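Weekly puzzle thread! Below is a chain. First person to post its structure in token form gets bragging rights.
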Amino acid sequence: EVQVAESGGGSVQSGGSLRLSCTVSGLTNSPFAMGWYRQAPGKEREYVATVNSGNTPSYGASVRGRFTISRNRARNIVDLQMNNLDPEDTGVYFCNVNYGAYWGQGIQVTVSS
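Winning reply:
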């Protein structure tokens, strides 16, 4: 059974930083892509970032230059370093594997002004 688990969310003031981690277990067909989406209250789920099977990162326009995605391939962990956070970054952040084949339960990030 594939399991996807997020950790590291919380609350921070505007301009602050948070680091999210996502751990995947039970998936044997590596390499695979891993990424993050987020959903704010009353809004649709939004693309944040992905690192593909070749370890190349890509970012959504709203986070490019502020967020950094990285992966420890041997440990099936992907991290999302979020800097210069804005209240608009508030939402539930979801980790996914292989472009949505598997999803985590989500973790809350709250940025206050």
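Puzzle host: Confirmed. Bonus trivia for everyone else. DSSP finds no helices and eleven strands in the chain.
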